[in-house]
Amino acid sequence: MADNSSNNEYWSANIRIIRICLIIWAVCSFGFGILLRPLLAGIPVGGADLGFWFAQQGSILVFLALIFFYAWRVNKLDKQYGVEE
């Protein structure tokens, strides 16, 4: 990445991926686990309601999935811009 415009494009794409991941995580953890919990109370999942499940386990599982997604997507982005390891 010799020129500055390529550098800016790379970081712009990287920040966009980070924002998307953070929004998904916030919606799953704060939204489903706290704000929308009363709406999800009638949906049973493993002996508890869906809102409780998101607050206790769902947001963690979504976070783990987002970690793997981010690693996969940034590796692809690194190859696209020629900065892979």
UniProtKB/TrEMBL annotation:
<protein>
    <submittedName>
        <fullName>DUF4212 domain-containing protein</fullName>
    </submittedName>
</protein>
<keyword id="KW-0472">Membrane</keyword>
<feature type="domain" description="Sodium symporter small subunit">
    <location>
        <begin position="8"/>
        <end position="84"/>
    </location>
</feature>
<feature type="transmembrane region" description="Helical">
    <location>
        <begin position="20"/>
        <end position="40"/>
    </location>
</feature>
<feature type="transmembrane region" description="Helical">
    <location>
        <begin position="52"/>
        <end position="72"/>
    </location>
</feature>
<keyword id="KW-0812">Transmembrane</keyword>
<dbReference type="InterPro" id="IPR019886">
    <property type="entry name" value="Na_symporter_ssu"/>
</dbReference>
<keyword id="KW-1133">Transmembrane helix</keyword>
<dbReference type="Pfam" id="PF13937">
    <property type="entry name" value="DUF4212"/>
</dbReference>
